[in-house]
From TrEMBL, chain A:
Provenance organism: Menidia menidia
Pfam families the record matches: His_Phos_1
Any one Gene Ontology molecular-function term assigned to this protein's record: phosphoglycerate mutase activity
The protein's name: Phosphoglycerate mutase
Function: Plays a major role in regulating hemoglobin oxygen affinity by controlling the levels of its allosteric effector 2,3-bisphosphoglycerate (2,3-BPG). Also exhibits mutase (EC 5.4.2.11) activity.
InterPro entries, sorted: His_Pase_superF_clade-1, His_PPase_superfam, PG/BPGM_mutase_AS, Phosphogly_mut1
GO terms under biological process: glycolytic process
From TrEMBL, chain B:
SUPFAM superfamilies: Phosphoglycerate mutase-like
UniProt xrefs under CDD domains: HP_PGM_like
Active site: 11 (tele-phosphohistidine intermediate), 89 (proton donor/acceptor)
The protein, known as: Phosphoglycerate mutase
Site (Transition state stabilizer): 186
Binding site for substrate: 10-17, 62, 89-92, 100, 116-117, 187-188
Native organism: Menidia menidia (Atlantic silverside)
EC number: 5.4.2.11, 5.4.2.4
Alphabetic keyword roster: Glycolysis, Hydrolase, Isomerase, Phosphoprotein
C-alpha cells in the first residue's frame, strides 16, 4: 500500500553539459535549455495536479534554479525549500572541468571507465594546483556546511556520495516524509542515483546501469517502511524520456553515436 | 559604529498594481516592470558587494520572486530562505480585487477616505461570498493557521501586530547572532518593521511609502536602533528620486 510520495528531479542542462565536461562542484547555472527543461517539468507536474509540501535542494545554483522554476510553474513558490551540501553532485576530484578527450588523454580510457562505472573507486583528489580549486573552496557557502570546510570531500566515489547523503536523508528528510509531506528533491545525476540505490536496494554492479534523464520527475511511491511499492515512474511523454535517457548515455561514450 | 546592517526590499509592480486593484493576500505575480525592478535591486546589491547569511520573505509570490531575482543577481542562491505569512501584505478584506473606482462606487468616497486615513479601522471582511474567498482563505499555504490567526481583513495596526512577533522571535535573534539579514516583503509588513525600528508614530508611518525594488539599508547599533536614516542603494538617479519621493510624502495633500 502506497503511503508516501517522493519526487526526485535531476536538473537540466548547464553550460558545461553542452561541452561534456564534469561540472561537479563548480557552480554553473542552467543553460537556456536547462531553464526550459525545468519549466516544462513544472508544467507537467502542475498538469498532473501534484502538490508539494517541502522541497530539498543541494547548495549548487543549478539545482536551486531548477526547483524555483518548477515551483513557479506550479504556483507553489510559497513551499519551504531546504538546502544542503549533502545533496550536491558527486565530487569528481581532479577530473572536474575535464572533457571526454582530455580525461582519456590524461588518465587512459580504462581508468576513466572504472571511475565512472565502479561503485566505490574514488577518482584522484582535487588539489590546490587544479584550475577550479579556489573557485570551489573559497566559496563562502562551504563555510556554512555542517562539517568544517577542511573535512569536505576532495573527490568521491558513488559510494562516498551515499555515505554523506544518507545521514541527511535519515535525520532530515525521512521525518518529513513520515509526517505525510509530499516531497520534491531537486538535485543532481549522482546524488539522485545514490538515493535511488538506497531506496530500491540496487546492487553495486547494477547501479552503474541506472541512467536518470535530466528534467524528468521521478516518482517513488513508498510504503510505511519507506520501501517502494512499485517500480520508479518517470513522468511525462515516454518517448521523450527514452530519448533523454539515450542522450545521457551517449555522453558517456567515447565516440558520439551518430 | 554600526553593529549590524539590515537590508529590506519592497517588491515592485504586480499585475494587479497595473490594474490599480487592491491586492492584499491575493497572490498576484510581478508584472514585467516588477521583474525589472527586482533585477535592478539585485544589481545594486551586487555592485555594492553585499553578502547575506539568511533571508526572509512572505508566502506571496511577488515577494518570493523578488527575493529570487535578487539572490540570482548577487550569486547567493544557496542562502537559507524562510517564508512566513506574517510578512504578507496587509489583508484588504472585502476590498480585495476592487479597483479604485469600484471601491468608491461601492462604499462611497467618504468611507474610502476613512479607511485610507485610519491606522486601526479595518476594511470590511472578506466573507464566504467573496470572489476570492476560496482562493485565499482556503489556500493550502494557510492550513496551519488557527482560526484566530487567519485574517478576513486587516487594518494597518493588525498587519503590524502579526508581523512584529516574527520580527522579534525569529529575525532579531539572528541579527544579534551576527547574521546578515535580507527581508523581501510588502509595503505594509515592511512598514511594521520600520515603524518599530524608528519608533515612529501611527500618523508618521501612515505617511511613509517605501520605494519599490530599491534595497533599503539600515545600520543598527547593538540594541538594534538605527544609527541614521534609512539609505537606498542604486545608481545616483534612482536613489535621488527615491529620497525625494519619500521626502515629499509627508508634505502631500490628501
Amino acid at each position: 500500500m502506497s503511503k508516501y510520495k517522493l519526487f526526485l528531479l535531476r536538473h537540466g542542462e548547464g553550460a558545461w553539459n553542452k561541452e561534456n565536461r564534469f561540472c561537479s562542484w563548480v557552480d554553473q547555472k542552467l543553460s537556456e535549455n536547462g531553464l526550459k527543461e525545468a519549466q516544462e517539468c513544472g508544467a507537467l507536474l502542475k498538469e498532473q495536479g501534484y502538490k508539494f509540501d517541502l522541497v530539498f535542494t543541494s547548495i549548487l545554483s543549478r539545482s536551486i534554479q531548477t526547483a524555483w522554476l518548477v515551483m513557479e510553474a506550479m504556483g507553489q513558490e510559497w513551499v519551504p525549500v531546504v538546502k544542503s551540501w549533502r545533496l550536491n553532485e558527486r565530487h569528481y576530484g581532479a577530473l572536474i572541468g575535464l572533457n571526454r578527450a582530455e580525461m582519456a588523454r590524461e588518465h587512459g580510457e580504462e581508468k576513466v571507465k572504472l571511475w565512472r562505472r565502479s561503485y566505490d573507486i574514488t577518482p584522484p583528489p582535487i588539489d590546490e594546483s587544479h584550475p577550479y580549486f579556489l573557485e570551489i573552496y573559497n566559496d563562502r557557502r562551504y563555510t556554512t556546511c555542517d562539517v568544517p570546510k577542511e573535512n569536505l570531500p576532495r573527490a568521491e566515489s558513488l559510494k562516498e556520495v551515499l555515505d554523506r547523503l544518507l545521514p541527511y536523508w535519515n535525520s532530515t528528510v525521512v521525518p518529513e516524509i513520515r509526517k505525510g509531506k509530499t516531497i520534491l528533491i531537486s538535485a543532481h545525476g549522482n546524488s539522485c542515483r545514490a538515493l535511488l540505490k538506497h531506496l530500491e536496494g540496487v546492487s553495486d554492479q547494477d547501479i552503474a546501469k541506472v541512467t536518470l534523464p535530466t528534467g524528468v520527475p521521478v516518482l517513488l511511491e513508498l510504503d510505511e517502511n519507506l520501501r517502494p511499492t512499485k517500480p520508479r515512474q518517470l513522468l511525462g511523454d515516454q518517448e521523450k524520456i527514452q530519448a533523454a535517457i539515450k542522450k545521457v548515455e551517449d555522453q558517456g561514450k567515447a565516440k558520439p553515436s551518430t | 559604529m554600526a553593529a549590524y546592517k539590515l537590508v529590506l526590499i519592497r517588491h515592485g509592480e504586480s499585475c494587479w498594481n497595473q490594474e490599480n486593484r487592491f491586492c492584499g493576500w491575493f497572490d498576484a505575480d510581478l508584472s514585467e516592470t516588477g521583474e525589472r525592478e527586482a533585477r535592478r535591486g539585485g544589481q545594486a546589491l551586487k555592485d555594492a558587494g553585499y553578502e547575506f547569511d539568511i533571508c526572509y520573505t512572505s508566502v506571496l509570490k511577488r515577494a518570493i520572486r523578488t527575493l529570487w531575482f535578487v539572490l540570482d543577481s548577487i550569486d547567493q542562491m544557496w542562502l537559507p530562505v524562510q517564508r512566513t505569512w506574517r510578512l504578507n501584505e496587509r489583508h484588504y478584506g472585502g476590498l480585495t480585487g476592487l479597483n479604485k473606482a469600484e471601491t468608491a462606487a461601492k462604499h462611497g468616497e467618504a468611507q474610502v477616505k476613512i479607511w485610507r486615513r485610519s491606522f486601526d479601522t479595518p476594511p470590511p471582511p472578506m466573507d464566504e461570498g467573496h470572489d476570492f474567498y476560496q482562493a485565499i482563505s482556503k489556500d493550502r499555504r494557510y492550513s496551519d493557521l488557527t482560526e484566530e490567526q487567519l485574517p478576513s481583513c486587516e487594518s494597518l495596526k493588525d498587519t503590524i501586530a502579526r508581523a512584529l512577533p516574527f520580527w522579534n522571535e525569529e529575525i532579531v535573534p539572528q541579527i544579534k547572532d551576527g547574521k546578515r539579514v535580507l527581508i523581501a516583503a510588502h509595503g505594509n509588513s515592511l512598514r511594521g518593521i520600520v515603524k518599530h525600528l524608528e519608533g515612529m508614530s501611527e500618523e508618521a508611518i501612515m505617511e511613509l511609502n517605501l520605494p519599490t525594488g530599491i534595497p533599503i539599508v539600515y545600520e543598527l547599533d547593538k540594541n538594534l536602533k538605527p544609527v541614521g536614516p534609512m539609505q537606498f542603494l542604486g545608481d545616483e538617479e534612482t536613489v535621488k528620486k527615491a529620497m525625494e519621493a519619500v521626502a515629499a510624502q509627508g508634505k502631500a495633500k490628501k
